[in-house]
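Now for my pick.
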Amino acid sequence: MTFFSHKSQKAHFFFPPSEKIPIFAPSTNVQHMNGQRYISPYTDFGFKYIFGSELNKEYLISFLNALFEGRHHITDVTYQNSEHLDEVVYSRRAIFDVYCTTDRGDHIIVEMQNVDQDYFADRMVYYSTFPIREQAKRGDWDYKLNPVYTIGILNFIFDKSSDDVHHEAKLMNVATKEVFYDKLSFITIELPKFNKREDELVTLYDKWLFVLRNMSRLMERPAALQERVFASLFRHAEIDKMQPKMRLDYEKSLFDYNDINNSNVKHFREGKEEGLREGMEKGMEKGKEEGLREGLEKGILQVAKNMKAAGMPVASIAKMTGLPEEEIEKL
């Protein structure tokens, strides 16, 4: 009766003309840290440094309120254990980037994902099972659940059929096309599709996406980001103000990110070159076949023309060459 339906919220952004290929965030420079003033949210350290700290939870609250665009208003969050073990014989560990509950009791998982996966949607569904199961109560329980949101901030193109940046999926009744269960939501944000310039930023959500996509390339806080939360964030994200231990941890995380990013680019380039080479080979082979067929057709026509000139009956020529009599008559 129900299935996992992908429902998009239309976002009106400027998209430059380009082929729909995996796009990776601009690689940051590790040459300590020349040319880089602020941390990169794409790194594991950078993302958790911004959104995973109790002392700076105002950033997470602001981002989530911007994402929900007035549907919910969060005033506080409580960080939960981000590491979970599956309750099976061979337990598999699930480690979330950020896992919190809100003042309303909603459970929210937020993940930064840099690498495309064949079963990323399955992974999001799997992650959602942990906050669902931990709501179970001992003894009498009526099965009432609080909402669960699994949010994936993606550094790759997840839905190649759409230019939308923001997607939200829920359980849907197939027959009525209406939401069957509104307490389970899967939200994906495809950062490579977000190409708004600074002068095009309108909503708080626009501004957060601009920060996530561009922070590591900025040398100062843009004039469009006048909100107090961004003034605080840009001070917090300055690399030179980090403690030495944190700075080393960030450099290691940045190295890991660049290693993955460069590997992805290399694999994409190799795949593109292999596809081009294969296409050329097939094209040449097809060209040979078409050339041979065209040559044979011309040869048969010439033979038929010579036979007709020699006075042979059209019916006999047609039988010997396989050509239609109408075509032979025209020779």
